[in-house]
Structure prediction request, 685 residues.
Amino acid sequence: MTKTAAPNPLLAGWTAAFGLPPFAAIAPQQFRPAFDAAIAAHRAEIETIAAQTAPPTFANTIEALELSGRDLDKVSNVFFVLAGADTSDAIEAVEREVSPLLARHSNALYLNRALYARIAALYAKRATLGLTPEQARVLDRYHTRFVRAGAALDQKAQDRLAAINETLASLGTQFGQNVLADEKAYALILEEGDLAGLPDFARAAARAAAEERGHPGKYAITLARSSCEGFLQFSSRRDLREKVFQAWIRRGENGGATDNRALIAEMVRLRAERAKLLGFETFADYRLDDQMAKTPAAARKLLDEVWGRARAKAKAERDALQKLVAEEGGNFALAPWDWRYYAEKLRKARYDLDEAEIKPYFQLDKMVAAAFETATRLFGLTFTAVDVPLYHPDARAWEVKDAQGKHVGLFIGDYFARASKHSGAWMTSLRDQEKLIGDTRPIILNVCNFSKPATGEPALLSFDDARTLFHEFGHGLHGLLSNVTYPLLAGTAVPSDFVELPSQLYEHWLEVPEILQKYARHARTGEPMPKALLDRLLATRTYGQGFATVEYTACALVDLDLHGLKEPAGLDVTAFERDDLARLDMPAEIVMRHRLPHFQHLFSGGGYAAGYYSYMWSEVLDADAFEAFEETGNAFDPATAQRLRDFIYGAGNLRDPAEAYKAFRGRLPAVDALLKKRGLNDVAA
Ligand SMILES: [Zn+2]
Prediction:
């Protein structure tokens, strides 16, 4: 008797609307067999391409690679969406198993000598192959990737690289899971009497968080940024602020099984070793070589230009806050857990503006609509809510169409924090755009961690949350508007110091008065934000930028210093962070936005290792790029928007980033617009 196993839904053809995965039919235990099958299939495809006797051609080698591994893409995309946005013990266990397998598989591809020989042969005669510009770019990118992965090294070096890659993948997974574990483990459960200073929205969110964590009728402050930052801003209980703040900055540093410091030391050591094997002096040199910045020195030059000014401005801000403490009769030196509280008070006093007054005007649904309308006015896109089965009831979907009514893609917004979601905000995809096999349309997600309101209450955002929403939606458009043939170049597949341009640029439109006037409407009365309040809100744009710039730039500098170590063996992470900040003369009242033990950009996946400077690098671009619109006197100027679509949002990795920017702007960017935007242009360094 034979028994036929039910087919694995992850590997079946997906027949749901828009080709969505059949989430309801997928169980965690199906991922491992699906990964195994998909990896084996891809490996066989790679072997076939490499073992051909026919001489290499673009079609039989590069295009064949572009067509391979499709099941693995599908399985990985679904898996990593869930692992980030709706994880569980079962998913985490699969993640720990699978990350070294994926690293090993990536080694099998990029360290395949026969395959590399074919690519190198094509690359050597690239000028004579009659390639289109896009094909030439794809070949160039493959060649670079293989060389950077170590394809040209001898066997011994390759074996060592392969082992390093696998270990790094496992350590990265463990790092992220440790941070999530520390976040899940903590909630400050409060009673009604502990809420002094908290406005209604913060109380409602804390009540909902307590309910979700099994404490109905009480209030919970969690380590989600929206929750603890809100508390630090408003709670007049200095003792409780200190408690929350300490828990927040000690994520990944609590001793025991979830402590990340040993993992960091090991990752930094392995990264440095890998860079040396590949012929670079440090990991930062290796990393930056394939970025727009090209060298650590170039990135550092920009950060240095900002750092002195930011510190001077932050010190002036601190003095003003300390004065406020004294005026209130406080007999203590301003501490890090006081900064946000007094900054909010001072902002209220100076601009007659407080977050609690603003927040009712930033309803989640209205801000989503505002982000959509901006895309309509710039790019002619329309968004229609569709009811399709997704992986969590809080996730929502919209069909995106162009001005001619043609389907562009599907956009999924998953906005609320929950215990099963990693912290932070990100864009990801279930399917990327391409034209190699038919006109494949993208499925793009934005995942955020906004506080979920109590049942029946509107979801309210802080102005920062609203900016995050626009930011991630900008990444989303980079995926949705992608217009390339080859998957390798699609959407956000650009260097990480360029990838934040579409997202950070998009934030500017949130502040365009005609968008704010239309969508910033009071949750109860429906009234638009009064002009005077709006003016005051916009006047505060450069308020607190000393703090924000120091908080960020310190992270970027410490990242470059850490990954610029030539001999990082035996690294003491705590001492390194402390000493490096001392060397930088970090103001004592400010803590890095992400301390090393929970710095997921650097260690969870590692996409931003030696690359956290990218946000500021991109900000030079975005500030300068938005000036292109301002110079026309129209924030939606059609000709500028068309160039933006052609060369940035729609262009994926078709061009070198500097060339792409020049094609849009007519020149490379200057730093002045950034300094002006942050209010640092008139501060002496
Ligand atoms: Zn981003």
About this structure: Residues 296-327 form the longest helix (32 residues). The chain is about 55% helix and 5% strand. The longest strand covers residues 407-416. The chain has a mean pLDDT of 94.
